[in-house]
Amino acid sequence: MRIATFNINGIRARLPRLVEWLTETQPDVACLQEIKTQDDGFPIKDIEEAGYGAIWHGQKGFNGVAILARGATPAEVTRGLEGEPEDEHSRYIEAEVNGVRIASIYLPNGNPVPGPKFDYKIRWMARLRARAAQIWAEEVPAVLAGDYNVIPFDRDVWKPEAMASDALMQPESRTAYKAMLADGWTDALASRHPNGGVWTYWDYQMNAWPRDAGFRIDHLLLSPAAADRLVDAQVDKIYRGREKASDHAPVWVRLKD
After folding, report:
1. 240, 248 contact by CB (below 8 A)
2. CA-CA distance, 211 to 141, in Å (whole number)?
């Protein structure tokens, strides 16, 4: 079972690239972030023509997450996180697909630091950890996939000093992420690349892609039941180099059936 995550950076703008990737790699499940469309603007017909069913949680112009399943419609479990009823951002959706619990996550960026956006980011991470604990208690194979907007370690960025003041690398961000690892979740990509040097994001500016000046912020966290089935985890890096590409590359795990 191949489960992928892809910050598409606007599903309408990147639809040809998305369909191209789905057709060429055929993931069993694809978690999307930053779809940047209201619910009624989601291109479900194009997705279905590519062979996928979908659920989504949209928002006009910003955020938005979705889960796609090949040949099926994901069984929605929940959308949004508890803890802040006034939070209207579309950043979390969770479903069951072929016996695996899967969440698509778009964590807040948090810049500038300090400030209310960073405070919101840290609160959101605490809410995510609380939801993860509820999933953990169910003892199901689970994959929490998405754009976490956290660079966990210095080895996950081309030049640590270049990002030192960014919300993605602040001690509070890293501590919150590592707390989930301490809870027992497995960072799938890090488990296959323990020395780092593997990027999932390259900025459109500063010639970042040609210079390979990237960093790793797209993660798939596995519960013990899923980690026991882990075969591989990699980045589909070539898709970042395509015409009108997202600034993220897809990341995937393969689990034994």
Report:
1. yes
2. 38
* Residue 69 three-state SS: strand
Domain boundaries, the chain: 2-255
Q: Are 206 and 213 in contact (CB under 8 A)?
A: yes
Q: Is 248 a catalytic residue?
A: yes
Q: Say if residue 46 carries a ligand binding annotation.
A: no
Model pLDDT for residues 65-74, shown as the tens digit of each residue: 999 999 999 9
Residue 160's identity, in one-letter code, is P
Please state whether beta strands 2-7 and 29-33 pair in parallel, antiparallel, or not at all (unpaired): parallel
Instruction: Answer yes or no: 147 catalytic.
Output: yes
Specify the fold of 2-255: Deoxyribonuclease I; Chain A (3.60.10)
Each residue's pLDDT tens digit, 153-187: 999 999 999 999 999 999 999 999 999 999 999 99
Helix (H) or strand (E) holding 60: none
